[in-house]
Specification:
It is built from two helices and no strands. It is mainly alpha-helical and 42 residues long. It has one domain. This is IS sequence.
């Protein structure tokens, strides 16, 4: 995917959004990191 397009999408989704910090760990972030560590290196 085009990095500029991804940046634009994230910008639109987060524009004027309220960030709520719960103090809990993100399960999605943990899963993404685990997958990245298991992925074969090219």
């Amino acid at each position: 995917m085009d990095p500029r397009l991804c940046t634009a999408i994230v910008d639109r989704l987060t524009f004027d959004a309220a960030i709520i910090e719960t103090g809990a760990d993100s399960h999605r972030l943990a899963q993404t990191k685990a997958r990245a560590e298991q992925a074969p290196t090219l």
